[in-house]
Design brief:
This protein has 293 residues and is of the alpha/beta class. The protein is built from seven helices and 15 strands. The chain has one domain: Metallo-beta-lactamase, Chain A (4-Layer Sandwich). Helix 4 crosses helix 6. The longest helix is centred in the N-terminal third of the chain and has 12 residues. The chain starts with a strand and ends in a 25-residue tail after the last helix.
Length: 293
Amino acid sequence: MSPHVESFHHAATGTWTHVVADPGSRTAAIIDPVLDFDPASGRVWSEAAQAVLACARDAKLRVEWILETHAHADHLTGAAWLKDQLAKEGGASARIGIGAGITAVQRHFRDVFALGDGFPVDGSQFDHLFTDGECIALGELGIDVIATPGHTSDSVSYRVGDALFVGDTLFAPNGGTARCDFPGADAATLYQSIRRLYALPDATRVFLCHDYPANGAAPTAETTIGAEKTGNTQLQADTSEADYIAFRHKRDATLAVPRLLYPSLQVNIRAGRLPDADERARVFLKVPLRCEA
């Protein structure tokens, strides 16, 4: 059975958010939501998340899950904001889920940001940590969890009927695959993760987390496993593991640090909650400095 999918592109970060619903029960999940953030002013707002919420409200969907494909390094997640708004509206209590590998991400960035021993690194900020092969209900449909580490240790893909939500693991065929230079990343592991996805039927619809179109071009939200296997510029069906690893190492050495890396991770390892406010209700994000003078 095919789920219904509505996709929302956040131009400022190139992020796709997807609302996937069981047409019969109108039960839904929101995947990879975005919270707007301007690093120059420190302003945080909810325009993108409001659009997703309005879609769910207008379609009379019952949102049961807010799913993260991983702790993103390029945008702040809107998961906590959406959960709070859904609760205020008196609907079903939506649960925030992410891959169980988030605990390794939390351990690493607790040290990076000097968050102290009081910061939990057991994933308890989230409502559920998914393991490989787990299946949860979405109305009459099931959501199958496929662990796809390599880009990050917590990366997972979600399969709902003929639809697959891959996070950063794959981009549109002309965009290639995820980078492998983050903490916990590994090109060989990502190669094997993508091979697992390539074993799915060619007609499987692949919904992307990011697309960065050229000026004047429309962003791509959806492709297929068959199109990735035959046309992905970095890893096709006949690409060897050795060739992919060599390419990935060479390519990753040229990539800049994501612009929102530090703000994103401080929020995203908290499931979208901002750091605690001080006694004057001020909230701060940290920027670790590398002093090379």
